[in-house]
Amino acid sequence: MNTRPPAEIGARLQDVETPALLIDLDAFEHNLRRLADKTKGMGVRLRPHAKTHKSAVIARRQMALGAVGVCCQKVSEAEAMVNGGVPDVLVSNEIVEPRKLGRLAALARQARIGVCVDDATNVDAISAAAQSYSSTIDVLVEINVGSNRCGVDPGEPALALAQRIARSPGLRFRGLQGYHGKAQHIRSFEARRAAVAEAVEKARDTRALLARHGLDCEDIAGAGTGTFAFEAQSGVYTELQAGSYIFMDADYARNLGEAGGPVEEFVHALFVYATVMSTPTRERLVLDAGFKALSFDSGPPKIADLDDVEYVAGSDEHGNVRVTPSNRPLTIGDRVRLIPGHCDPTVNLHDWYVGYRGERVEALWPIARGPGY
């Protein structure tokens, strides 16, 4: 860690240097408990996605409440989790480069490691890496259940890969990965449920085909913050991979519940703390948080706690905020909390979490996002 944290434990919240990534610890702990309790009652396992938080500290807190481990997307993230004390990590993605496969195989000597595949030559390469390190790697066949990203077609293509894994030295066939990413942000409750129902059918039919050929699916994994309840109730999915629930960004908050109103079971816990650095006109303020502090792929952030104040445009180090001339609640030096549009890539821009309770800093957690590889 080459950067110093933007605060000290015990400091007043208003003294935190900005822009900074804040965690409201009361809200965060509510979210942790909420999903942990729900999954226990649903008869499924929780394997939260660590690409959201990139923190072994948070991963261990999730496991303390019953999570079986975590999943992540990169070898560097898996290494950070294992080095931080997490004993069970699934890389819910395809890893194909030889050096990365070597690192993955080496990591499998320290912890239970899984990975996804959608190609026969990749199966052979993972097997070779596992044999060279005398390790065993769990492998899931990723099936395309609607996201049209990675994944083979359900049915016979998945069977062929599963059979290849089962006969490959150093590998253990573990089951299917069926994550429907596109369904997570479908606003309508019924449309989300219908999209997941199609995914469930593809996973169920593929599981039955594998069973007829003597292959048991220990796990059928997937689900996210927007759909986990549907997969959990399906009787098909065994592991849920929700990640953003711990923070709840502005985009997930736009999803609607069964009654037609906002989904309210999780609350906003992650904020980018920013300072008003300029008031150039009666209608406009400028914050010190722009593209280097926030991800804009899901739209601009929302400003917490204030009405008639809108973050309208960003640049590298600046954020333009529109205010009503007759109601200017902010002036130079004032602080605001910004709710990111998309939490995962926003976290990736920071080195530290500043955890606060009330008006005091209580925790400083490093973000172990690792290099891009």
Protein architecture, described:
By secondary structure, the chain is α/β, with parallel strands linked by helices. The chain has two domains: 13-20 and 264-366, Beta Barrel (Lyase, Ornithine Decarboxylase, Chain A, domain 1); 25-254, Alpha-Beta Barrel (TIM Barrel). The chain is 28% helix and 24% strand. It has nine helices and 17 strands. Strands 1, 10, 11, 12, 13, 14, 15, 16 and 17 form a nine-stranded mixed beta sheet that branches. Strand 3, helix 3 and strand 4 form a beta-alpha-beta unit. Helix 4 (98-107) crosses helix 5. It is globular and about 70 Å long. The two termini are 17 Å apart. The relative contact order is 0.17. The model has no long low-confidence stretch (mean pLDDT 96).
Summarize this structure as a short list of keywords or feature phrases.
TIM Barrel; eight-stranded parallel β-sheet; nine-stranded mixed β-sheet; 24% strand; 2 domains; 9 helices; 373 residues; 28% helix; globular; alpha/beta; 17 strands; Lyase, Ornithine Decarboxylase, Chain A, domain 1
